């Protein structure tokens, strides 16, 4: 079983989407199921409606989940397993207050040493624990040996017990921490492999430790994806607009282009332009580079143009919210723009009321008048020659006026190439001026 486990705490970041795509691709390759697990146990950080946004985005990208879980619904299992860890003495109750812990953290900071939980409550006897009415968290006991795992991108990783520390698994309010809920759910949902961002590398030994302490011996495979850097070479923060999937979609990037770009990023691929189905045929997580990849919006823009060129008329009509008959015209205008709104704008200029510069007004009127009289020729040359004859215009006066009349622009593509794509609508187009 594979899974994508987003927290509904903000807009989906391209790093999250990349993990969602990679897990999906590998699940398809292995013919295994794919779970969407909304990790909503941190009530303070949850934002209403973000779960729906996540689902909508995945659907747009063609990522279909077989099962949907809300992690908060699993709370009773989290509590039961925390209880078992307490009974088995693999975990302990900690009554230290926030203030006490803050003072110890400050002391470690002042002394220039890394803070670690000092084991105060691990030493309490059962009677001392039972006698206490103070609120408590539950902490894991440290492993007796170093925890190791082999990451399919980073290689073998080793974590010493002191770096795993007595991490908290249940909060004072009896809700599980991320590491605990995630570890238990991956076990209960029979997850076999996890691809996620490298910010989770140090969580993996903790999650493995929890499952080992519960006697679960299925080995879960891991691949942690290097972070995505911005153009300045810094970690792409959630606040940077280009990092938001919603922002990219709203700007007019196609889901298929974003997907293509995210699979291409820091990867060795057999070609540059491909679809999700193509990637399922050859994707190998081991080809992902260990070093961070740089997000290049120019490259994404170029890929977007290529995907517009290969999209079917039906797909273009959905994406551009235009009649299916505009497919060829949309593809044609990739020479002028790469994003949906840029291209849409060029086409709507053709079909909307024109603004005629005064120096061309007279010529435009002549041409417009002539067009209403001529038949619509298949061929631009015949059309043009006929109009020149009827209007007695030539050179710039003729061509610029015709261009303005047809496109509402003074620059643009070759009219001879544009003409076949709009000739059936010519009378309608020139009536709007
Ligand atoms: N909810 C975590 C996140 O969004 C999940 C990480 C994981 O895949 O385990 O970062």
TrEMBL record:
Chain positions recorded as ATP binding sites: 238
One CC-aspect GO term: cytosol
Location (main, coarse): cytoplasm
Gene Ontology process terms (BP): glutamyl-tRNA aminoacylation
SUBUNIT field: Monomer.
Summary of the function given for this chain in its UniProt record: Catalyzes the attachment of glutamate to tRNA(Glu) in a two-step reaction: glutamate is first activated by ATP to form Glu-AMP and then transferred to the acceptor end of tRNA(Glu).
Protein known as: Glutamate--tRNA ligase
Organism: Campylobacter ureolyticus ACS-301-V-Sch3b
